[in-house]
Sequence to fold (409 residues):
Amino acid sequence: MVEPVIRPFVVRFLYGLLAGFVTATLIVALMARQGIAPFETQPLPQPLVARISEGYGDDFPPLKNDNLLRAARGEPVDRVPVWVMRQAGRYLPEFQEVRAKHDFFTVCRTPELACEVTMQPLRRFDLDASIIFSDILVIPQALGITVEMKPGVGPVLPEPLVGPADLERLNQTGTIERLKYVGEAITMMRRMLEGKVPLFGFTGAPWTLMGYMIEGGGSKTMSKAKAWLSDYPEASQQLLDILTDQVVDYLVMQVKAGAQMLQVFESSADHLSKEQFLSVSLPCLKRIRVDLLRKLADEQVPAVPMVLFAKGAMHSLAEQAQTGYEVIGLDWTIDPEEARKQVGPNVTLQGNLDPQDMYQTPEKLRELVLTMVRKFGKHRYIANLGHGITPQTPIESMTVLVQAVHDAL
Fold:
């Protein structure tokens, strides 16, 4: 006897459902025409979010020119790869235009500006690598040390470390978070490159950073920093250990952000004797490599090739070749053939034209570059200068350098 009651109810229910569906469809269509999203986007699963934001996933454009990475791994290359230390720098008028509007560290800390200046040399020259625009002294900054870039002077640290008690001033908590702008710039740059060339990340090495933090800036003698080694040996080791730990975490962050190769700059190795280099600098450089690989493996992040550039430490190339770095950078003071004898056949060499040669006539410069490249050979070699390009370098010299490298073999 309930059937007459149920049928009207069912009919009304189905009619209401159909009417609701039609109404919802019309509303969605109207919202779409107005450009309004009808439903809130659901968040991605957290592991995927982390992978994308950290930059080492598959979301970057495929690499079109991998000669640099192939050379680092000892694989055949189409041509000898070339890039230049400080290739995004003061010799470029477009860089000067950016600097006229923004101070140095504002450029470093603003990913859009850092990417713009990183891109500038790639628009002009047929380079085989890019290197993110930053500075080695961002690590002391993140530790709480004031660093200023003064025109005509360079970096100035107005409150340097004077004695062991000053180590208490270093804020080791949250340093990588304070450096996240570098990772953001790397990720942004990988996308801007659209796979054109690989992207370098980099860091200063502990001894070099220690020198700046104690000297209060660049130094021709490093007398205060060297005095620390003899007067405060325990504090010196403590400082080197702190800096090594920070460098490792900084490089891990850069790889996660998308850096495809890394360079460690031991720019002040020339202030150490061979004995000091082997006892003070090299242990830190070894630990950077070992700890970095371990941490990347723990987080299942693929490792990238690494360059060790210890300016002024050509006396210890054999020892550097045993550190595990895929590439050893050379300054201009050593002959390529002698360097190869010292490191052996299983390490890639990078370098080593004297930056001063960039002031030669185009004809003479081309001759010097051709001679250099042919001495190194095509296997396991990356062409570069023996140090950073200098501010007054003629732009034409960069064009000659790059073309000569590519023509040599």
Remarks:
- Confidence is low (pLDDT under 50) at residues 1-15, 17-55.
- Residues 3-33 form the longest helix (31 residues).
- The chain has one domain: 74-407.
